[in-house]
Amino acid sequence: MTGLAVLVLWIVLVVWALERNHRRLAGPPPSRNGTAGVRDRDAERVRAELRAAADRADQADQRPFP
Known about the structure:
mainly alpha
């Protein structure tokens, strides 16, 4: 009988803790599609690297061959 009372008390405490945590973290759900309106710094970096590589290639083509 004591074991059953301890089990019920344990279950009640777990449910209470989960509900408390759920209420504390409640808010707008996170977006599944990512964030809109944010600069994509990776794309900017790749474009800059490609432009730099193209400039180096153009400079190498214009350099006189010894």
